[in-house]
UniProtKB/TrEMBL annotation:
InterPro entries in the cross-refs: CcO_II, CcO_II-like_C, Copper_CuA, Cupredoxin, Cyt_c_oxidase_su2
Descriptive protein name: Unannotated protein
Compartmental location: Membrane
Annotated organism of origin: freshwater metagenome
Similarity comment text for this entry: Belongs to the cytochrome c oxidase subunit 2 family.
GO biological process, one term: ATP synthesis coupled electron transport
Length: 255
């Protein structure tokens, strides 16, 4: 009894359980921020465009900013589970907890949440603005992308008649995709380039990217579109400008 009274009289930041929860909070925040950020970044593969580099950076920042929120919830939950156990039907005296009626705590929480949301909104808009840059590039090549159950068609309007099921792109050159669909809704996704846009029948949606790495990357459908949706995938070959010209020629185009 006397111990509870002494604890109650001490300011809240000097209480032992508060200090322990705070320590747990810091440890969990660092763990969540570090681990979750890495898992998110690595699960997408090495980035093959500046858009993807920006996206990964943004995901890492958002993870670090939200880690303390998850960390605080985890710390309080763990601390309660470990040291606030209670058996029987009579609730313990401290169950009538002060924080439940604290307008100050509510205000801090509402303002913090509001600021976090505002940060995510403004930051996201700046990154999206940056990503749209390639749409204005004067030297961009155009590719018409058509999704159908269950494959992708790539047409090269600068070289009429050239059509492929695998995408070929020159490195370091902006490309504008005019995306549409033949039958149902699909979603055009180049995983390692951070490009994902809906492919709707009867509409053309534009998106753009500048591939900055030579290699072979994954193209997938990201919208459940029927029985073989999971198999609706192909590849994008990012090659040098000379190899690209050679490929276009081999397909009957004039490079
Ligand atoms: Cu699909």
């Amino acid at each position: 009894m006397s111990q509870t009274q002494t604890q109650d009289k001490a300011p809240w930041w000097k209480r032992k359980d508060v200090k322990e929860t705070a320590t747990l909070w810091v440890i969990l925040s660092v763990l969540i921020g570090g681990l979750a950020g890495e898992v998110i970044a690595r699960s997408m593969g090495a980035p093959a465009s500046e858009t993807m580099e920006n996206t990964i950076r943004m995901m890492k920042i958002f993870t670090w900013v939200s880690a303390p929120v998850a960390g605080l919830v985890g710390a309080i939950a763990l601390k309660s589970l470990m040291q606030k156990r209670h058996y029987g039907d009579t609730p313990p005296a401290e169950s009538d907890h002060e924080i439940a009626n604290s307008p100050k705590a509510s205000a801090v929480w509402i303002v913090t949440s509001g600021l976090l949301c505002l940060f995510a909104l403004v930051f996201g808009m700046i990154v999206m603005q940056e990503d749209a840059k390639s749409l204005q590039a004067p030297n961009a090549i155009h590719v018409n992308v058509t999704g159908q159950q269950w494959l992708w068609n790539f047409d090269y309007p600068d070289n009429a008649g050239v059509r492929s099921h695998d995408l070929y792109l020159p490195v370091d050159r902006p490309v504008i995709f005019n995306v549409s669909a033949k039958d149902v809704k699909h979603s055009f996704w180049i995983v390692q380039m951070g490009v994902k846009v809906d492919a709707n029948p009867g509409y053309i949606t534009q998106t753009a990217v500048t591939p900055n790495k030579i290699g072979v990357f994954d193209v997938r459908c990201a919208e459940l579109c029927g029985l073989l949706h999971a198999y609706m995938q192909s590849q994008v070959h990012v090659v040098s400008q000379a190899d690209y010209d050679a490929w276009i020629k081999s397909q009957g185009g004039r490079a």
